[in-house]
Design goal:
four-stranded mixed sheet, alpha+beta, 131 residues, 21% strand
Length: 131
Amino acid sequence: MELTEEIAAYHDGTGEPGRLVGEFRRSVLLAPLEQGPGGGLMSAVQGGVRWVYAFTDEAALARFAQARGAGDREWEYLAILGARLVDAIVPMIDGPAGVAVNVADENGAMLFPPVVGIVPEACAVDRADAA
């Protein structure tokens, strides 16, 4: 199954969390870059968590751009495996961080939070030694 299908299955109650996370890790995602000097991956903070934006394809990224009123410009992005986002990028972020996939798609969005089993244990907010 593709990630979008796993997300749909999860939303309709037939998905399995382990399969969803596995497909997320294997999927090549498009992570938009911030404009201007310093760049970096586009993200937002919500509820004390930094959410890195990622999209399953250019159409999902275009819907995000349209929702932000910036559909008329070209968006640069990094194509990256979901596993690299959580294993390499999340640990570089100061504070709790997760990945928000297809956030402009009301029924197709999925959050991969900073918890054990998704991000490295040292970055997980629910690890045994977390304060």
